[in-house]
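[Automated response] Your request has been received and processed.

Submitted sequence:
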Amino acid sequence: MLSSINARQSIDEIKEIVQYNKSDQINKTEIDKTVNPYVNTVNMHFNTIILDKYKQLAMLLL
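Generated structure:
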């Protein structure tokens, strides 16, 4: 009897964890949808700035 109660409790805990992970995953995808465009834009700007500096340096060295 005690082991079946423990098993039921474990199953309920696992269901709760799975449900939490699903909702957490939804939150992560929502964050990705809203934040990633900004991150990509910032990365693109930094990359163009850095590449521009390297081009200037290469011109100086030539």
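Summary generated for your ticket: The radius of gyration is 25 Å. Residues 21 and 44 are 32 Å apart (CA to CA).
If you did not submit this request, please reply to this message.
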